[in-house]
């Protein structure tokens, strides 16, 4: 468990005046992340240019990300968004027999959009979530078959916070001879991710949600044995073996997942990412996860007592931090709560209460109390 929350909170200045519970959308700004962004600006202002130093910050972020998911640094590509990562993989895949790509119907829409834009090459199928519950490995057993080339699904749902057992799903997917590609945008920074023990082939995540960073930078993990077999079609000079050879007439991909790098690194975002991932890597993610499970228990109990309808699982082992409360006018309630200094995030018909390591039981109780007030 996180036991020094009060000390941690001092590094997130917004918490002095506001309750921020929006980590499924944007987590709070840590002073070190602000400092890192300022360092980039200062360097630009003072030195005019520092390509070496700016690229190094992005490389450091890549290393921190690799260590966070237990991958080798050579298995990580630096991309601009999860959409970019999925597009890069989609354009690089080809198989003589298999043409089916499966996504679940609760995944983040961008994943569906990317794969659907490749319907000329792949048959896209949506694995259905059961009407009366959450998807299980059995649903994959029934719906994935030997025609499937890749299953691309999220670790934690952006909508209701449902957390899948990746190791079990990976087993099913691999039994059918397909690749397992995970969208970890909603789990990075709040749940343990170990690509080796979970047997994940590819994984992508950005920094803006629970990873304490900003958008504009994301990472793509591709298992070493697979990466070198793939030919990226979304590419550029940074994906080359030697970007600084300036050889316009030849394509010579870098080895490993670095071949999925493309253009100039998003440098200012890299500074923020390096700082953010360093902060997270200084904790045991399991402790953050336990803290968030406790806050989920608090949220679920408080909602039940107030008669609020939950969309999230009630078993905290099956969910991430996000507790989704059903409200048809969720966006309106988000604005009203913001006016009262409580930052939460609406999606469609839910308000998501998404705490992080810096939040307390008191934050969660006050937010739900405020939400209830706004409804009256
Ligand atoms: C699970 C998940 N995947 C993907 C995305 C979109 O990522 P990007 O905008 O980096 O493409 C989001 C954004 O909220 C998300 O929650």
CA radius of gyration is 21 Å
Order of helices and strands: HEHHEHEHEHEHEEEHHHEHEEEH
- Ranges where pLDDT stays below 50 over 5 or more residues in a row are none
CATH topology of the largest domain, which one? Aspartate Aminotransferase, domain 2
Q: Any idea what the shape is? A: globular
Which band does the percent of strand residues land in?
A: 5-15%
TL;DR?
Helix content is 38%, strand content 14%. By secondary structure, the protein is an alpha/beta fold.
Q: Overview of this structure, please?
A:
- The protein is an alpha/beta fold and 376 residues long.
- It folds into two domains: 5-30 and 284-375, Aspartate Aminotransferase, domain 1 (Alpha-Beta Complex), CATH 3.90.1150.10; 39-281, 3-Layer(aba) Sandwich (Aspartate Aminotransferase, domain 2).
- It has helices at 5-9, 31-47, 51-68, 82-92, 109-116, 137-143, 166-175, 224-227, 267-281, 285-305, 330-339, 361-375, and strands spanning 19-20, 76-79, 100-104, 123-127, 148-154, 179-183, 202-206, 218-222, 323-326, 342-343, 345-347, 350-353.
- The strands form three sheets. The protein has a seven-stranded mixed β-sheet, with helices on both faces. A three-stranded antiparallel β-sheet has the order 9-12-11, with helices on one face. The chain has a two-stranded parallel sheet with strand order 1-10.
- The two termini are 35 Å apart.
- The relative contact order is 0.17.
- The model has no long low-confidence stretch (mean pLDDT 97).
- It binds pyridoxal-5'-phosphate.
- The site of pyridoxal-5'-phosphate has 12 residues, from helix 4.
